[in-house]
Amino acid sequence: MAWQQQGDETPMVWEMLLYIYILYSPDWHYRSTMPTFLFLYGALFAVAHSLVRFHIGFKVHYVLLCLLCVPRMYKYYILTEDRSAKRLAKLYVATLLVGSLCWLVDRLFCKDISRWYFNPQGHAMWHICMGFNSYFANAFLMYCRAQQRGWDPKVNYFLGIFAYVKIQKPKAQ
């Protein structure tokens, strides 16, 4: 159904707007302008997207939002000294590339692949990779935001596998 697809796509845009806020807010001169603009942009997009089916327009829009984040994500990657945080950023890029490749191969060769004895399910693999991609991006950006706020973040691991950011806020004086 069209509305269901749009319901899946709108949160993707909101996620990218949040990333833009985290990445660009330290350099924004007017504190309330940026969050207000991003909120209104997201709300207008959600309304427009619920009324109009964008098809390829959504994909182009989403890629542009992602590309807006790349220079700043790279800046924070370079400035980060913590190896575990850098690893989160590398996993973010790796899952983005692998997921995109799975989606593209599935999109271009779906008819051929569906005749194989074993179908690798590229679209399903895209969803799995993008789920991990969001996880790694959120963890890395949480680390970056905590650094921006002076909260001394550390990357820890639950069960030795699942990375999370532990934040130590300074004591108020």
List the helices and strands and how they pair.
Elements: H1 2-24, H2 33-51, H3 56-79, H4 83-113, H5 122-148, E1 153-158, E2 162-167
Antiparallel strand pairs: 1-2
Helix pairs in contact: 1-2, 1-3, 4-5
Can you offer a commentary on this structure?
The structure is a single chain. The chain is mainly α and about 170 residues long. Helices cover about 70% and strands about 5% of the residues. The protein has 5 helices and 2 strands; from the N terminus they run H-H-H-H-H-E-E. Strands 1-2 form a two-stranded antiparallel sheet. Helix 1 runs antiparallel to helix 2 (about 35-50), helix 1 (about 1-25) packs parallel to helix 3 and helix 4 packs antiparallel against helix 5. The chain is flat, with a radius of gyration of 18 Å. The protein starts with a helix and ends in a 6-residue tail after the last strand. The model has no long low-confidence stretch (mean pLDDT about 85).
